[in-house]
Design a protein that fits this description.
Elements lengths: L3 E5 L11 H10 L4 E7 L9 H5 L9 E9 L19 E5 L10 H14 L5 E2 L11 H10 L3 E5 H5 L5 H14 L3 E4 L15 H7 L11 H10 L9
Parallel strand pairs: 1-2, 2-3, 3-4, 4-5, 5-6, 6-7
Helix pairs in contact: 3-4, 4-6
Bound molecules: zinc ion (2 copies).
């Protein structure tokens, strides 16, 4: 189980089906230490709202709740849909290619776009599901560029659990991170409550690769918080 899950959708995403409090109850019941609520940015219909970012505090001291967003890759200039108005409240910023990103541009182009995006937006902490088959990337190059900026690549449990990406692709991704010394965030990408904290589909891949625990940025609560706090300087207001 992931102690501190950094990629979780609530009902504030069009594709999420649970409230933050339902997620919190589940996290508490299974003994998690915390999770980040990372609903989709506005171009994917995310319903990010002021009260959650400005006023909400976890009512359960045993389970920390971080506030985040999963931004979308907009175009080749590296533009993303980061909600600048919430920047002062954001603990974690994810970035991924989703159905609103142009299709069939090829491995080189998608890699160029993601590198441009992390270059232009230092607030991005984690690139989600780089093994999405619709938006192929050069794993080695992306891992090298991510590492240079302290950004982690995600190993997404749901993509493997639901067979939305070949296991082989996740293996190549993990090997690339190993070769380049790039950090990995192991995340569930929860949309349904039983997925919270799950990593069973990707753990064997890390184990088979001999991937070192110390390169997993959320290997426990302490490392997850240290990763987030270490990157907070990048959340200075901009835009
Ligand atoms: Zn995503
Ligand atoms: Zn997601």
């Amino acid at each position: 189980m992931i102690q501190f899950d950094l990629h979780v959708h609530s009902i504030f995403s069009l594709c999420g089906i649970h409230t933050v409090l339902e997620l919190l109850e589940r996290a508490k019941a299974i003994g998690m230490k915390g999770f980040a609520v990372t609903d989709h940015g506005l171009t994917m219909g995310g319903r990010l709202n002021n009260p959650f970012f400005e006023r909400f505090k976890s009512p359960c001291p045993e389970v920390k709740i971080l506030k985040g967003v999963e931004c979308n890759l907009i175009d080749e200039t590296g533009k993303i849909d980061i909600p600048y108005i919430f920047m002062p409240f954001l603990d974690v910023v994810l970035l991924g290619a989703h159905p609103n990103t142009a299709k069939n541009l090829g491995r080189e182009k998608y890699t160029d776009m993601l590198v441009a995006a992390i270059d232009k937006n230092p607030c991005v902490d984690i690139i989600t599901h780089p093994n999405d088959p619709h938006y192929p990337v050069d794993y080695r190059r992306l891992a090298r560029e991510a590492k240079a900026r302290g950004v982690a690549l995600e190993l997404n449990n749901s993509k493997i659990l639901y067979s939305r990406s070949e296991i082989k692709e996740a293996e190549v991704l993990v090997d690339a991170c190993l070769e380049e010394g790039c950090g990995i965030a192991v995340c569930s990408d929860t949309h349904a409550i039983h997925e919270l904290g799950t990593d069973e589909s990707v753990r064997p891949i890390l184990k088979a690769a001999g991937f070192p625990e110390e390169l997993i940025v959320n290997r426990d609560e302490e490392s997850a918080i240290a990763f987030i706090e270490g990157r907070r300087k990048n959340k200075a207001f901009s835009g």
